[in-house]
Amino acid sequence: VIRHDDVKVKSVMSPVLRDELKKWCEDRGDLNLDELLLEAASCLKVQQDLLAHGWYANSILYSCRAPNCDAMAVSKMMKALAPNTNIDVIVSSTPCYEREGAKSRIAISEDSLLLNHSIAKEGFDNPLTNAVIVSRNMDALGIQQVLGRAARILPEDRQKLLDRLISIDSPIGWKKYYANVYVICHGDETFV
Cα–Cα–Cα angle for 141, 146, 152, nearest 5°? Predict the structure, then answer.
């Protein structure tokens, strides 16, 4: 759980990124700066954590708001803080050809971040996704769908499992053994 007062998460934010996102919120007028900053910092922290463990970092953010995704996607500083990360956004207004382009880039990447609100819940099959970041409330079926994005088995792991070269009881030999789930807690009332 990533809490709203998590100092470690806030420490990945540069003042320049904070100012850039603050300006975006002021220009839009309909965004919550604290919410946007927490989502942006959480995404950066998750990517850092995954890479620090020696895993590839393919994450999907399920944001509170689609405009938060847009703000993070155009942020020059966010891209500067995660220079090797392929950052894509898919929201309801994203044209189909751009959605397909984002899915294609993510399918071959080992360091990607997909920003979305609810588009990538169903019908999105990318076994390389190994982390989901949940920043909004969902019903039980929605949560199951989201968890399934990270829990997909890689084809090569499936074959090794069928050939009994690896075991579900040990991470040894797997390319993707772990599915990581991060939940952003925007306030103490989130889990009430």
Answer: 115
Of 125, 6, 2, 114, nearest to 62 by C-alpha is: 114
pTM for the model: 0.89
The residue type found at 142 is G
Q: What is the C-alpha separation between 33 and 133, in angstroms, rounded? A: 18
* pLDDT bucket at 1, cuts 50 / 70 / 90: confident
Task: Annotate 40-67 with DSSP letters as a single string.
Answer: HHHHHHHHHHHHHTT--EEEEEE-S-HH
Count of CA atoms in the C-beta half-sphere (13 A) of 114: 35
Q: Report CA 172 to chain centroid distance, whole Å.
A: 25
Round to whole Å and give the CA distance between 3 and 135.
Answer: 11
Whole-angstrom distance, CA of residue 26 vs CA of residue 24? 5
Residue type present at position 97? Y
Q: If you ran DSSP here, which 8-state letter would residue 24 be given?
A: H
Starting at the earlier edge strand, list the strands of the sheet with 180-185: 2-3, 180-185, 131-134, 57-62, 111-116, 86-90
144 Cβ contact partners less than 8 Å away, ≥ 6 residues apart: none
pLDDT in tens, 69-79: 999 988 888 88
What is the secondary structure of 77-106 as a DSSP string?
Answer: HHHHHSTT-EEEEE-TTS-HHHHHHHHHHH
